[in-house]
Amino acid sequence: MKPLSRILFKPFVLYLGLHYGHALFMLIGFAVFCPSMVGKALIWWDIAFVLAFYHHFEHALLLGQRLFNQNLFNSPVPISIGQI
């Protein structure tokens, strides 16, 4: 019988991978449509782009720790920038 951690690992990585893909898709969308923004819309678009980039980076960091089985600072669980 497989240990519970092996059973739960694949769905967790799948979920995290899908969420990371969504963050990447948003980031690309913001970059593609940015040139069409002007005035105050450009300011808000840039703020949204920065937040989307941070979101993408956070999930890339978490997914990388999970896939390579090496957590930052030898933590027992994957950690994000906000937890450092």
Structure in words:
- The protein is an all-alpha fold.
- It has a domain at 25-79.
- Helices cover 70% and strands 0% of the residues.
- The protein is built from 2 helices and no strands.
- It has helices spanning 4-33, 40-68.
- Helix 1 (4-33) runs antiparallel to helix 2 (40-68).
SS summary, helix count: 2
What does the main sheet amount to?
Answer: none
Helix-strand category = mainly alpha
Broad shape: elongated
Q: Give the mean pLDDT.
A: 81
- In helices, the fraction of residues equals over 70%
Oligomer: single chain
Uncertain regions spanning at least 5 consecutive residues: none
Question: Count the strands?
Answer: 0
Give keywords:
84 residues, mainly alpha, 0% strand
List the helices and strands and how they pair.
Elements (H helix, E strand, L loop, with lengths): L3 H30 L6 H29 L16
Summarize the structure.
It contains two helices and no strands.
